[in-house]
Amino acid sequence: MFSKILIANRGEIACRVITTARKMGIKTVAVYSDADARAPFVKMADEEVHIGPSPAAESYLIPEKIIAACKQTGAEAVHPGYGFLSERASFVEALEAEGIAFIGPPVNAIAAMGDKIESKKLAKQAGVNVVPGYVGEIDDTEHAVRISNEIGYPVMMKASAGGGGKGMRLAYSEADVREGFESVKREGLNSFGDDRVFIEKFILNPRHIEIQILGDKHGNILYLNERECSIQRRHQKVVEEAPSPFVTPKMRKAMGEQCVALARAVGYHSAGTVELIVSGADPTGESFYFLEMNTRLQVEHPVTEAITGVDLVEQMIRVAAGEPLAMTQDDIGIHGWSIENRVYAEDPYRGFLPSTGRLVYYSPPVPGWSEDEMVAGMARRGVARGNGSVRVDDGVYEGGEVSMFYDPMIAKLVTWAPTRDEAADLQIEALDNFRIKGLGHNVDFLSAIMQHPRFRSGELTTGFIAEEYPEGFTGAAVSDDFAKVLAAVCAGLEFAHQARGRQISGQMADEALPVTGEWLVKLGDTRHEVVLGEGHAVVDGVRVTGTSNWLPGMVLAEAHGAVGDGPEVKFGLIVERSGNHWVVTTRGAAHRALVLPLALARHESLMLEKVPPDLSRMLICPMPGMLVKLHVAEGDAVQPGQPLATVEAMKMENILRAEKEGVIAKINAAEGESLAVDAVILELE
Fold first, then answer.
1. Model-level pTM?
2. Between 20 and 30 A from 545 (CA), which of 123, 287, 452, 479?
3. Greatest CA separation found in the chain?
4. Residue 393: which of 439, 441, 436, 342 has the closest Cα?
5. Among this protein's residues, is 292 annotated catalytic?
6. Owning domain of residue 574
């Protein structure tokens, strides 16, 4: 076994690897860039080596710097995590030339599976189902159009070396191919140094299912069941779960055996994942097809660990050291259900714009890697919550920054419970207790998904987000009963706020209007009359019972409420004062509440609010990025839906389109210019 390993990665996955290595008695070395000098993973490691400036291309992506750090510290092996150098065959070859072990698969498997075109050929030869499409290099846009017409629409255009949602476009028509083909080539070249593109049939009602593979150097290869990763945004996974609510035991066996056959065909060892696209329109479950093989650890590996009890990082280290697997296929079972939500630094209320910046306040529902190690419990890890458990994998800290240089992930929230519904309920409770301030985040959106009836039914496809939120995200739906509970809470907040202010100022009751127990609460577009009592309130004539524990400043730590004889609801809230309003965030939505004494509120003039200005005649940059292309000039007439500008952010191109008919009156930015969020790119007459 190794005595010291180096982690060629950063953030939560570096913390994750260090935690298991420490459990195994192996010393660790962290490498870090300027941006990560104070990061938790650097503090957790036994040794650390600075490898360069913040951009990954000048630090984490330079093999020579990783190898030099190994030599400097005496590290015998390298764990690459995911991303960066994890699937670069030339890096593995360079390590082998220096006598340094790679904690991952053999170089030939990485090379074979890293090329999406070649991997499909190998999969077909190994007897794995493949999606109908064109496997070969595509010359130009006209060639792409001919291929797409032959396959039949819709088709998916993909960069051959792509991943993480980059370099992908869905085309429903010839016009879509003509518009998107060159963008796919550019994204592939900019992100992966490879502009080759392939085209395949888009599967109807597609579900994204992946099989976890684990093999050793002695010819043993197992499949550790499946994960469902169908809920995606722009082809990037948002929610993952294990097992899948769609996969039957028969499907699981068929998928697993095909994936093992593919792994065996390329001499695979270590952990890996075979991704499949499955037609949800086929009730037999037999329509599943090979997409790609990821020759590394996946972001979503914790859900597999939770239901199998197998520490995948530990197994990767043991396999790299030459040990045989200590388990057989019959040892791999399914214990309970696990769900993972990716907490990102993005603003779902503003079209999921990237939101980099400083974490002014950060408190996860349970300690993350940055504060504590895994707590083992049966076949799962985390902090116990009732019949389940909660685990947070993070690599950030309060006061630190989510940098523009790297992935915008803040944390991974993983829950385990005996059933799927219980695991989802535990997600909602844990998300309510995630405290993040200083930048935008998607906690509300994740909670809304966990509550969504379609998610709870298990009727998922990769189009879930686009189909269920076609106009964007405005917050989770609120039932009438829960709105009454919130109205009671807001009235209680205002009562406590005014009473506390009176107490601090020493003002006597007869010097001003007395603090009342009768309030009108304007909660969004609804109004509620609330009469506060002892341990209860009457909201719109209905008795609401409950209690709350409010800490002045930000957090209402916990509340309980029930309407009439209904069940009691327990929830956590984030509470902030904004001018004369309360902003209460809970259960997947931010609620803006204006609370006024009932007697005064009957005067409508007190309820008027400012109407926001009309910005529809302006094209506003929705995110920080670079203006790659202007599609129009001053004086051009435009129609709704017409492309106006293309902005690149985080290596992905975003086409901004006209919302209304008009004429370009003024252009305020030039191609190649860096734009701030809300910058006005152009104006319409």
1. 0.80
2. 452
3. 88
4. 342
5. yes
6. 480-607
